[in-house]
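Open question from group meeting: does this chain pack into something compact, or does most of it stay loose? Before anyone orders reagents, we agreed to write out a predicted structure and look at it together. Recording both the input and the output here so the notebook holds the full record.
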Amino acid sequence: MPDRAPRALGVDEFAFRKGCTYGTVLVDVEAGRVVDVLPDRPSETFAAWLKEHPGAEIICRDRATAYTKAVREAAPDALEVADRWHLLQNLSAAVEKACHQHRDCLRKRAEEETVTEAPEVAPMLLPPTELPRTQIIERTRHRYEDIHRLLEKRWTISAIARRLNLDRKTVRRFRDTDLDQLLASARERRPNGVLEPFKVYLNARFTEAQGEVSGTRLFLEMQARGYRGQTASSTHVTPVADPSAPHKPPPRNEQLSNSRSQRGKVKH
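Structure tokens returned:
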């Protein structure tokens, strides 16, 4: 690595081990090659590198505040720009949000097209009424705010752990880690309850079909409604029993199998 940084410097995080250990990769944007790799991603590490390697006029980065802090501290005259991937990500998120905000207009338009066009044309697939929430992100943000609010009041680690019912290691991690890094780690984990918004629909389909519907078909139907989980998740749903529905005896083959198993248990 030369003593000076490239004129256009790209910076981004990467995973040594996904969800556990992250570093920082530095790239010469104009030459298209890696110039250095940093062992972690705090702002202090990147700021120290910029001080040792001056000369960056343009710094291309993501939206992480840690890198912004380092640039303002060690290279205040450099021009900060957003990289192409995050611009496209922001655009796609904005389009998705707009589609959900205007789903009533889309539904009306889809119904009009269904009436005017030929019957064989499939109607427009609309976005679900509500996007599945990522509870782990909100929980991480609130926990960070609670811990730092008590730290500002000069509470000890042990007192905070007792107050919030947390382990002291967890309190120290939230004290010593930037919020962006905590949220990035939380995004790597699978959100709890990914199937929750679709359980009502699944139970209705089970009741309508009297249990005679394939898991593959349910999975495709849920995908059309915004489900992003794995195929096997649909097999874990047990429909809620309707107490008013008449009892339906199992097929004869199943009755024979059950009676044989009961006889085997009696013999043992």
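Observations to bring back to the group:
Residues 128-132, 232-248, 253-259, 261-268 have pLDDT under 50 and may be disordered.
The chain has eleven helices and five strands.
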